[in-house]
Every structure is written in structure tokens, then in C-alpha cells.
Amino acid sequence: MKAPRELWTSKVAFILAAAGSAVGLGNIWRFSYVVGTNGGAAFVIIYLIVIAIIGYPMMVTEVTLGRKAHKNAIGTFKALAPNTPWWIVGALGVLAGFVILSFYSVVAGWAVSYFFKTIGGSLGAGADFGGVFVGHISSAWTPILWHAVFMAVTLGIIAAGVVKGISRSVRILMPALFVLLIILVLRSITLPGAGAGIAFYLRPNFSDLTWQSILGAVGQAFFTLSLGMGCMITYGSYLSDKDDVPDNAAWIVGLDTAVAIIAGFAIFPAVFALGFDPGAGAGLAFITLPAVFAELPAGVLFGAVFFLLLSVAALTSAISLLEVVVAWLIDEYNWTRTKASVIIGLLIFLLGIPASLSLGAVSFNIAGMPFFDFLDFLQESILLPLGGLLTAVFAGHVWTANKTREAANTNRGKIQLGSWYDVLIKYVVPIAIAVVMLFGLIDTFS
Ligand code: PHE
């Protein structure tokens, strides 16, 4: 006998879990480094536009499809369009979950080890912050060890089940993370020389933009909102039909965007004030933030709490990535939750090993980049935008915008989807993604 499918215990539980999925390393680690490598303010503006006209409609759409079918990412497409190949969109999502979590867990492991480095005092004033970071990620064993610990915790929570495992931690995490980020912002913007960083972050120079960076903004928007890979479909599937979708979606998108924008104010003024390079790449947050903590009274304490919170934020995202794969195996193949969590968790851990090693311990390149960067490129430039594009075509034209809109509007919340939604999901979203993907990929490979 199969246990009945779980449902979120309350409306708040869903918002918390979905916001927990959205807010993670993407808002702090990834957001700051892609803004830094793509020239700053102009990229941020494109990112915000993408969030509004693609991110929000996609969030509503994915949650609605999941709630309608009460199925995993693949099962949802099978249920809404039986005997068609549309389930492949869900399969792409499951693949993306695999790919993303493998390197995501490696970065989460960095955050965990930075918690201990901060406490241990190796990141105090005058430390060689860049050197510590490069030393850490390019060593063979330590990052893999923390990656293993992080994956073990992730699969433990997922094995325990959706409601118990997921919604608890987020309640404390979100407010605490907000408070700490604000403290960081205050220190960062008052450092002498911070002005240049604020200008970099706020004063756009559109001649910096390339198609490649616009595709990067679309990819980052999908990544940070956990879209384009069936994650919000899966989380939506645990919503009851009485719950509201358009309002909840607005909360999730708003919270996630706020955290990213605030994180930028914590990082960029300090980057310039302390003489770091905004284009430093994947290390930007790990190099800059410890340097800001070193400038704060009781910096060790703040630093330790921050990296702890970042680790927990990463955890609530990681569990949503694993849940996409696990829910599929439970629904479609009757695997037990424990079996699915353990086997998939282990496989993802294994894929993360070469990703971690490729950052310096061994040389392992694919398409001219370290394997780690290749996995990130694959999800950002191909898997998530393509998943989003196909999901929009499905909701707008196959299942039809009319049905999706009505399925979303079952409650009398503040936001009601109108004909503007139809226009966005049928035309604006798919065409915009298609154009950006086409030119972005040409740009990348030429
Ligand atoms: N949104 C998460 C973050 O910003 C990452 C993530 C992507 C989670 C895709 C689930 C699905 O850290």
C-alpha cells in the first residue's frame, strides 16, 4: 500500500518552503558573481525586467500546473497531456535537478567550511582572503568532505518527508538572514571608497551588455526562482486546491528578489572599497564578505552566524532540488522515499566529485571550461531557459492559457490573472526566451 500523498499543513508552510527553495546560494553567491562578471548595473536592470515579465508568470504557471495535477514534474505533464511527448519537459527538469545539485552541494560545502574557518580565526583582519578561497577550492579532499556532509544532511531531510523535513527551518532562517544582510549592508556602504561600488551596482552602462550576458540574466532569474526545472511544479503539487496561487507567487518572487538586491548592496560597495576585483568570478562573495566581517566589531561572531545561515539557506534549496527527482521515482516507480533519497543522493554526490576536483586539484575541462563551470553553464544557458520555454508553450498553447489562468484563479486573492497573463505566457515569455537563447548561444560559441 502506498501512503497517501502529503499536503502542506498550512498556507504559510507552502510559502516558506517555496521561498526557502528560491532563496539560497543563488541570491548571494551566484547573483553577486554573475553581476560582477557581467558589468554591474545594466545586468541588474535586465535581470529585474526578466523577473517581472518572465519570472512571475512562470512562477504562477508552474505552481498552478503542479497543484492541478498533484503530481511530480514528469507526472504533471503526463496527467495534463496524456499520450503526448510533453513529459519530456519534466524529464529535462529531473535532469536539471541532478546537474544543479551536484555542483550546488559543492558550493554549499564551501559555506559550511567557511563557518569553521571563521570561528577558527583564519579569516581575521589582514588575512589573504583571495588566497584562502583559492587554496580551499583547489584542494582535493576538504571540499569533497564538506560536499559529502552537506549531501548527507540533504538526503536525510528528504528521506524524512516533505512537511516535517522542509518547512521548519525556513521560519527562523528568513528573518535572521534579512537582519544579518542589513548589518552587512550598513558596514559595506560606510567603508571609505564604497561609492565606486554603489555606482557599479546602480549606474548602468548599456554598452557593456552582450547577448551572452542577457542570456546570463535569464538563466540567473530562472535559477534564483527555482524555475524551469519542475521544482515549483513539484512544490505546487503539495498544495490543496483551496490555496491561493497568484498572491503566493508574488510573495515568493518578491522575497527572493529583495534578498538578492540587498546582498548586492552588501557586496559591491565593499568590493571597491577594499580593492577586490568585481569580475573575480565564483569566489566573489567568499572573498569579499569575510573581508567585510573582518571590518566589523565582533566580526567573528557575525561571520560565523552568516555562514551558518547561508548554509541553511542552501539546504532549503538543495532539498527542493533533490525532491524533484525523488518525487518522480516515488510517484512513477513506487520507490520508497528512503530508497529514492539514498540512491539519488549518492549519485548526485558522485557527480559533484569531478566538479569539485576540476577547480584546481585536477585538470578536467569540457568545452574549454572546468567541469564545474560546464555544469553551471549547462543549467544556466540551456536546461533552465529551455525548460521554461517549453513549459510556457505547454501552459499557453497545449493545455491552453485559458485553462491555466482559470486553474490559477480559483481563489479570490488580491491578484487575479487577467488577459495580460495570456499575452505573457503565450507570446512574450516564449518568444523572449527563444530570442535570448538563440543570440546568447551564438554569442557564446562564436
Ligand atoms: N533557487 C535556488 C537558489 O537561488 C537554487 C535552485 C535552483 C533551487 C533550481 C531549486 C531549483 O539558491
Would you mind describing this structure in some detail?
- The protein has 446 residues and is mainly α.
- It has a single domain, classed as Hydantoin permease (Orthogonal Bundle), CATH 1.10.4160.
- 76% of the residues lie in helices and 1% in strands.
- The protein contains 18 helices and 2 strands.
- A two-stranded antiparallel sheet has the order 1-2.
- A hairpin with a 2-residue loop joins strand 1 and strand 2.
- Helix 5 runs antiparallel to helix 14.
- The protein is globular, with a radius of gyration of 21 Å.
- The site of phenylalanine has 15 residues, from helix 1, helix 2, helix 10 and helix 14.
Give the neighbour order of strands across the main sheet: 1-2
Instruction: Assign an overall shape.
Output: globular
Count of DSSP helices? 18
Low-pLDDT residue intervals, each spanning 5 or more residues: none
Order of helices and strands: HHHHHHHHHHHHHHHEEHHH
CATH architecture: Orthogonal Bundle
Identify the bound ligands: phenylalanine
Distance between the termini: 55 Å
CATH class: Mainly Alpha
How many independent structural domains?
A: 1
Question: Taking all residues together, what is the mean pLDDT?
Answer: 94
Strand fraction? under 5%
User: What is the tally of beta strands?
Assistant: 2
Q: Mind telling me the C-alpha Rg?
A: 21 Å
CATH topology: Hydantoin permease
**Largest sheet, if any?**
2 strands, antiparallel
Q: What proportion of the residues is helical, as a percent range?
A: over 70%
Content-based structural category:
mainly alpha
